Amino acid sequence: MSRQLLPDVDSRLCTLCGDCVDVCPTECLSIARDCEVVLVPQACINCAVCEAVCPATAITMRTQDW
Ligand code: SF4
Ligand code: SF4
């Protein structure tokens, strides 16, 4: 198990606009089945650009286990 600062997406706020997917420098975010944002944690470099760009403020960087 790893512990790391990662984006936490609040699905109640997310509008699936795709902005976070577009800006992520390591392409570790995607929209799955047109219904949720999915993260590949191994590829995340904790830059928080996704959190900054989200127009719905649906992303919060949190320390998470994976
Ligand atoms: S913190 Fe950076 S690397 Fe990680 S998902 Fe967000 S934009 Fe991508
Ligand atoms: S930028 Fe925010 S609202 Fe848009 S898909 Fe990502 S988490 Fe959802």
Describe this structure in words.
- The protein is α+β, with helices and mostly antiparallel strands and 66 residues long.
- It has a single domain (3-65), classed as Alpha-Beta Plaits.
- The protein contains 2 helices and 4 strands.
- It has helices spanning 19-23, 49-53; strands at residues 3-9, 29-32, 36-39, 59-65.
- Strands 1-4 form a two-stranded antiparallel sheet. A two-stranded antiparallel ribbon has the order 2-3.
- It is globular, with a radius of gyration of 11 Å.
- The N and C termini lie close together (6 Å).
- The mean pLDDT is 97.
- The chain binds iron/sulfur cluster (2 copies).
- One iron/sulfur cluster (SF4) binds next to helix 2.
**Strands, count:** 4
Q: Indicate the structural class.
A: alpha+beta
Give the biggest sheet. 2 strands, antiparallel
Order of helices and strands: EHEEHE
Average pLDDT figure: 97
Shape: globular
Number of domains: 1
- What is the CA-based Rg, rounded? 11 Å
The name CATH uses for the topology is Alpha-Beta Plaits
